[in-house]
Amino acid sequence: MTATERSLQLAQAAAKAAADKLAESVLGIDVSEQLALTDIFVIVVAGSERQVGAIVDEVEDVLRDLDAKPIRREGDRDARWVLIDFGDIVVHVQHEEEAAFYELERLWRDCPVVDLGVPVRPADSAAAEG
Predict the structure, then answer these.
(1) For every one of its 130 residues, what pLDDT tens digit does the chain have, with 9 covering 90 and above?
(2) Distance from CA of residue 42 to its chain's centroid?
């Protein structure tokens, strides 16, 4: 089983929202073969707690426009790792230190990477364009 079209649509929208808020990196992983609860993990890395919060807010706003409401949101208090569960996808927005420590992409390395339509490192592509 692979991720559904709806999951892919939501993941791409979440990735674009994160990239628009200057995320340091954005990665999609198809976990549908490994987990029955969700199809795609969107892993976003941000440089500060403030940026984590801005990305979380933007992702929720953009996905709300696509009629996707979060089932659960965890980690708001410290804004170091916020998990937003939309059912079809789960968005992890992590401060760069948490991302380096937990290395979610390494834990799920056996799962296929999903093309989210944004560069894995959006800031690098913006610098290259400038």
Answers:
(1) 688 999 999 999 999 999 999 999 999 999 999 998 999 999 999 999 999 999 999 999 999 999 999 999 999 888 899 999 999 999 999 999 999 999 999 999 999 999 999 987 765 544 444 4
(2) 3
CATH 3.30.460.10 fits 5-123, yes or no: yes
Those residues whose C-beta lies under 8 Å from the C-beta of residue 40, and which sit 6 or more positions away, are 3, 7, 8, 10, 11, 28, 29, 30, 31, 32, 88, 89, 90, 114
pTM of the model as a whole: 0.91
Q: How many beta carbons lie within 10 A of that of residue 125, not counting itself?
A: 13
Radius of gyration of the chain (CA): 13
